[in-house]
Structure formats: structure tokens, C-alpha cells
Design brief:
Helix content: 25-40%
CATH superfamily: Cyclophilin-like
Keywords: Isomerase
GO molecular function, one term: peptidyl-prolyl cis-trans isomerase activity
Distance between the termini: 95 Å
Strand content: 15-25%
Enzyme class: isomerase
Shape: elongated
CATH architecture: Beta Barrel
Function: PPIases accelerate the folding of proteins. It catalyzes the cis-trans isomerization of proline imidic peptide bonds in oligopeptides.
Protein name: Peptidylprolyl isomerase
């Protein structure tokens, strides 16, 4: 026969177990939420490692239940035109191109995209290797017909481009050194809206051709070479792309807008 004291202890134990289960469920949800944001921070920046979010998000989705479902992908209208005829570049090079830029000159990059023009003012004085590489790649048609493959809309706010493969794994075959990481504009580890910066693999001096365009202030460690600023027309185009959202529904995925760089050109004066 169960005594009142035994029954009381049993009920207390069951209550404790229920509390532990609720706490564990809350912990798992917080872990998933933080993983999504952390993945966004890590990639932007990872220009060659797709493991950044793919594995983590897939594993989390497997753990989801009907009561804790994965975010529903959002599909907004595509505000962009059809791409110009042509195929992405397959060129690669064994080493960084010879330095030809004049650090005292002014350089600009114009990206003619399916969503509108993105105009960039390049900082050759503080990021000469990066600007030199972009001038070389643009002249070679490396960026032409390539997709901007990644849009983040939570925690960090960037559009990532520069990979002809459109997967986040492509590059020119060479890497360039980090530059301008102590730029005074990067106050409080914030890349301000209007910044264009290099993506990398998470290790020093691993930038290639991938870059990201910041359309809203974004908290990031100063590990990504800032090498220019986005003009008014470019910001307008980026806002239109961002407003269309991204495909995962989690704030980090392929943009709903079909963003293709029809033509990239660098000019100097």
C-alpha cells in the first residue's frame, strides 16, 4: 500500500521531471535560434566552406516536431528582370595578379545587375591588393553572368556575391591578403550600411572573389576587408532585393530576387 508520504514524493519527482523536460526543450530551441544567427555571422563570410550552415540546419530540422517546426520558407515576388544571355566564368589563376593600381587614384566599380545598378566607390589607398584583384577580375569578365547567391536578413544584413558557381564555394584560384581591418568606420565591431567587404573562409588572408554588400548596419568582427562604399543607386537596388526576402525563411539563404551580375566594370581616374 502506498502511503501519503510515498505518494507525495512520487508527485514531486514527476513534477521535477516535467520541469526538466520543459527546460531542455527551451534550451534546444535557444540553441537552434542562436545557431541560425551564428551561422549568418560565420558565413558571410565564409567564401569557401558550405558546411557553415548546411549541416547544422539539416540536423536541427531532423529534430523538429510538429510543435516545434522549422521556419516556413518565404517566397516573395521576384522584382528583377531576366539575366542577359551568357554563362558564368570558369577561369581560375594560380596566383594573385600583378599590382597595377595607383594607390593615389580614384576607382569605381559598376555592377549592372538584373535588379538594377549597384555602384561602388573603391578604396585603393587602404585596400590596394583587393582593388587590384577586383579590377583584374572585372577586366577578365569573371563576375559577368554570376548570381549573388546569399542574402541574410536576421542579425546581419548583407547580400553576398562574387562566386561564378553560385554555391559559395567558387573563387579565382588564388587568395589575397587581408587589408584595412582597422578602418575607423568599423566602430564597435559594426560594418555600417553602405560598406562593401571581402568574404573569406574564416582564416586570415583567404579572400578570393566573393564579397558582401551591407544594406543595414551589421555586427561583425573586424575580419573582413572593407574595400569600398556603396553609392545611393546601389543602396536603392539592395533595399529592393532585401525587401523580396530569402528562400529559407530563417533569415539566411538564397535571395528570392534573381540577382545576376550581367556586367561588372572597374574604372579609374
Amino acid at each position: 500500500m502506498v502511503t501519503n508520504e510515498q505518494r507525495r514524493r512520487q508527485l514531486a519527482r514527476e513534477k521535477f521531471e516535467r520541469q526538466q523536460q520543459r527546460r531542455e526543450a527551451t534550451r534546444r530551441k535557444a540553441h537552434r535560434r542562436n545557431a541560425v544567427i551564428a551561422a549568418g555571422v560565420a558565413v558571410v563570410l565564409a567564401a569557401g566552406a558550405t558546411a557553415y550552415a548546411t549541416g547544422a540546419l539539416v540536423d536541427d530540422k531532423k529534430k523538429d516536431t510538429a510543435a516545434d517546426a522549422a521556419p516556413t520558407p518565404k517566397k516573395g515576388p521576384d522584382p528583377c528582370a531576366k539575366p542577359a544571355p551568357g554563362t558564368p566564368s570558369a577561369k581560375t589563376w594560380k596566383s594573385e595578379p600583378e599590382m597595377t593600381v595607383d594607390k593615389s587614384a580614384s576607382y569605381a566599380m559598376n555592377l549592372t545587375t538584373t535588379c538594377g545598378t549597384i555602384d561602388l566607390k573603391l578604396d585603393a589607398a587602404n585596400a590596394p591588393h583587393t582593388v587590384n584583384s577586383f579590377a583584374f577580375l572585372a577586366k577578365e569578365g569573371f563576375f559577368d553572368h554570376s548570381k549573388c547567391h546569399r542574402l541574410t536578413t536576421a542579425g546581419i544584413y548583407v547580400l553576398q556575391c562574387g562566386d561564378p558557381k553560385g554555391t559559395g564555394q567558387g573563387g579565382p584560384g588564388y587568395t589575397i591578403e587581408d587589408e584595412n581591418l582597422k578602418d575607423s568606420k568599423l566602430k564597435g565591431n559594426v560594418y555600417p550600411a553602405g560598406t562593401v567587404a571581402m568574404a573569406n573562409t574564416g582564416q586570415p588572408h583567404t579572400g578570393g572573389s566573393q564579397f558582401f554588400l551591407v544594406y543595414q548596419d551589421s555586427q561583425l568582427p573586424p575580419q573582413y576587408t572593407p574595400f569600398g562604399t556603396i553609392g545611393a543607386e546601389g543602396m536603392k537596388t539592395l533595399k529592393k532585393i532585401a525587401a523580396a526576402g530569402e528562400q529559407s525563411g530563417a533569415g539566411d539563404g538564397a535571395p528570392n530576387a534573381t540577382v545576376v551580375i550581367d556586367k561588372a566594370a572597374v574604372t579609374g581616374s
